[in-house]
TrEMBL record:
Domain (AAA+ ATPase): residue spans on this chain: 180-383
Record note on quaternary structure: Heterotrimer of RecB, RecC and RecD. All subunits contribute to DNA-binding.
Further facts: In the RecBCD complex, RecB has a slow 3'-5' helicase, an exonuclease activity and loads RecA onto ssDNA, RecD has a fast 5'-3' helicase activity, while RecC stimulates the ATPase and processivity of the RecB helicase and contributes to recognition of the Chi site.
Matching NCBIfam families: recD
Record family assignment: Belongs to the RecD family.
UniProt-annotated binding residues for ATP: G188, G189, P190, G191, T192, G193, K194, T195
EC number(s) per entry: 5.6.2.3
Protein name, as recorded: RecBCD enzyme subunit RecD
A GO term, aspect molecular function: exodeoxyribonuclease V activity
Function of the molecule: A helicase/nuclease that prepares dsDNA breaks (DSB) for recombinational DNA repair. Binds to DSBs and unwinds DNA via a highly rapid and processive ATP-dependent bidirectional helicase activity. Unwinds dsDNA until it encounters a Chi (crossover hotspot instigator) sequence from the 3' direction. Cuts ssDNA a few nucleotides 3' to the Chi site. The properties and activities of the enzyme are changed at Chi. The Chi-altered holoenzyme produces a long 3'-ssDNA overhang and facilitates RecA-binding to the ssDNA for homologous DNA recombination and repair.
GO biological-process terms attached to the record: double-strand break repair via homologous recombination
Length: 641
């Protein structure tokens, strides 16, 4: 009982969830005292899910238990450190024999057993093992499809759509690859032309289609906001296509993945599944880095084998909050290409043999060791940010974990901006307190245009819709992002301060005051609101009650909901970087806390910084932490590759 007692101590101190402990109690009850170690390892598998890992890596657990389990948690108090045994102590109590006995347990690798042990190394909850197997099997089938292609004709179409460049065009390569394969990943940073490529890909597919009727295209993204952005940018890009290619491509609506698959009341299962597949020829998923393993398994199950699956996303961004860094795993090493020689030869042929893939990108072992990379193209040139200018430079250096230039910028960001106008769109605000005058001024200036629109009211516009549209547009112009939720530099505190600075002490940050931006924190199917949707509390006229303004699902439509109908929202002057994924803001302010924490990683900083469209302010009490965070990477477990 010693191990179970230790586990209960962890739960009492908030180190693990009630769910994790309950699972251990269940296993302990079923298996008996002799299998106590298995019960405890079961709880750790469950705990790992909450950290975003679909399995527990037993080798890593033995090498570095605290790093692997991310315990003690960020905010563990001194008393909880005293009350609990450390992960290292738990490991000693478990002993080596616990690991060797695991495979013999009734709870492991039996038909329908709750746990699955893979290669004596990765321990899964069966459900997550099944998800992973579903994805591996499905992608394997899709990757084996090889559409018959007339390379010369394809080349001619690509010449029209992408031009006859002498330089290598990764966009063109991505398009060629997706025409050939049943599964393609197009990864790239902000503004590298993922949408540009996908629209030309759709045109190419339509052009080379044997059937006469238009392609059935489904566009989807993990959040409502990302779906809206995808829809807008795809429809905008469609207008740029030569007329003869546009004819058969209808304007498309993008939906959330939940909507694509059809949620059902009180069920995890979707309406579309293997026995009721989606009617589609091509399914394109944007912001795929946010898709977790459960959702990816559901998508692959619901997609007919004949349909193409295309994932778009930035592999370097934070992975989904839920378990499983699917895109990150699939595109790991995409920089290096690893194209098998015959794949490289075919890709070259589609370029009219003008440019050849660099030898460094060709790998004789590519097909066997990097199967997913034979279906992946990384777009490398951003049209939005130059890699040596301002936001682009900062994002690139952090993403590559290079600290030399970063260290210099931290020391003298102002001087660098003065000396070189290309660096003027990034600034560092080094302030010792989150309640400082400098941050207050930044927030008041940033939100002044929104305050003015609210003050002017709908009477200053032609109609209420125009006003509502202007408000929601303005809400995207300035945004505070925090690395953490709690503490002086956390999302909660910054929201309290912003409320005080903008609305005085008449209101508190969780009240329904006019001008309060809110983020929906849970999917609400009855209201058709999704986790991550952003609204603004407004009042149409003094006789009308306050309403929360959201964008509607139809292009240009707005919704004006009564606050009482919204049950899960939080104030969104500041949001966490995690929650900001899939969004962009003209001026983004990234707030880094004054203490180090495992959550501060290069992926977090990169994701926060690349939310900025035109201007970025990095607020840091201790800028050296930015260097430390840059050197820390997220390692997500999983067995997809
Ligand atoms: N090859 C190209 N020639 C001309 N313009 C291009 C090309 N590629 C991209 N663009 C333009 O660059 C801009 C950014 O491209 P796009 O929106 O496709 O990038 P993205 O990777 O989808 O960006 P995001 O990070 O927002 O998802 C767009 O205005 C697009 O029209």
């Amino acid at each position: 009982m010693q191990l179970m007692t230790s586990l209960r101590g962890w739960h009492e101190q908030g180190w693990i969830r009630a769910l994790d402990l309950s699972f251990a109690e269940y296993l302990y009850e079923k298996l008996g005292a002799k299998a106590e170690a298995t019960a405890v390892l079961g709880a750790l598998v469950s705990h790992q899910l909450a950290q975003g890992h679909p399995c527990l890596d037993l080798k890593q657990l033995q090498i570095a238990p605290d790093v692997t389990l991310q315990l003690p948690p960020e905010h563990a108090s001194a008393s909880s450190l005293h009350a609990c045994i450390s992960p290292q102590q738990l490991l000693s109590e478990l002993g080596d024999e616990s690991f060797s006995q695991l495979a013999q347990s009734r709870a492991v690798n039996q038909p329908n057993s709750p746990l699955v042990l893979h290669a004596n190394q990765r321990l899964y909850l069966r459900r997550y093992w099944n998800y992973e197997q579903q994805i591996i099997a499905d992608l394997g089938t899709r990757m084996a499809q090889d559409a018959p292609i007339h390379t010369r004709e394809l080349c001619a179409t690509l010449d029209t759509l992408f031009g006859k460049n002498e330089a290598i065009s990764w966009q063109r390569l991505a398009c060629a690859m997706a025409v050939k394969s049943g599964f393609t990943v197009i990864t790239g940073g902000p503004g590298t032309g993922k949408t540009y490529t996908v629209v030309r890909l759709l045109a190419t597919l339509q052009q080379h289609r044997d059937e006469t009727e238009p392609l059935r295209i489904k566009l989807a993204a993990p959040t409502g906001k990302a779906a809206k952005r995808m829809e807008d940018s795809i429809n905008e890009e469609l207008k740029q296509l030569p007329a003869e290619y546009r004819d058969n491509l209808t304007a498309n609506q993008a939906v959330t993945l939940h909507r694509l698959l059809g949620t059902q009341a009180r069920s995890r299962a979707f309406r579309h599944n293997a026995s009721n597949p989606l009617l589609a020829d091509v399914v394109i998923i944007d912001e795929a880095s946010m898709v977790d393993i459960e959702m990816m398994a559901a998508v692959t199950a619901a997609l007919p084998v004949s349909a193409k699956l295309i994932l778009l996303g930035d592999k370097d961004q934070l992975a989904s909050v839920e378990a499983g860094a699917v895109l990150g795993q699939l595109c790991n090493e995409a920089e290096q290409g690893h194209y098998a020689p015959d794949m490289a030869q075919w890709l070259n042929a589609t370029q009219g043999d003008r440019v050849v893939l660099d030898d460094a990108l060709i790998d004789p072992q590519g097909a066997s060791q990097w199967p997913y990379l034979q279906h992946t193209v990384m777009l490398r040139e951003s049209r939005r940010f130059k890699a040596d200018e301002g936001i682009g430079k900062l994002a690139t250096e952090i993403n590559r974990q290079q600290t030399a230039w970063l260290g210099e910028w931290i020391q003298q960001s102002e001087a660098m901006a003065l000396a070189d106008p290309k660096m003027a769109n990034i600034e560092l605000l080094n302030t010792q307190s989150s309640a400082s005058g400098a941050l207050k001024q930044l927030v008041q200036q940033g939100y002044a245009p929104l305050q003015k629109l609210l003050h002017d009211g709908p009477q200053a516009f032609n109609d209420v819709t125009e006003w509502g549209d202007a408000l929601l547009h303005q809400l995207e112009q300035f945004q505070l992002l925090t690395a953490v939720r709690l503490g002086d530099w956390g999302m909660r505190r910054i929201n309290e301060l912003a409320t005080l600075w903008l609305h005085g002490d008449r209101v508190t940050s969780d009240q329904w005051f006019i001008g309060r931006p809110v983020m929906v924190t849970h999917n609400d199917y009855s209201l058709d609101l999704r986790n991550g949707d952003i609204g603004l509390v407004v009042q149409l006229d003094p006789t009308d009650p306050p309403r929360v303004l959201f964008r509607g699902h139809k292009q240009g439509s707005l919704r004006w909901l009564l606050p009482s109908r919204l049950t899960h929202v939080e104030t969104a002057f500041a949001m966490t970087i995690h929650k900001s994924q899939g969004s962009e803001f003209t001026h983004t302010v990234v707030v880094v806390p004054e203490y180090d924490a495992p959550i501060l990683t290069k992926e977090l900083l990169y994701t926060g910084i690349t939310r900025a469209r035109e201007r970025l302010t990095l607020v840091a009490a201790n800028p050296k932490l930015v260097l430390q965070a840059t050197q820390r990477r997220i390692h997500r477990g999983g067995g997809l590759t």
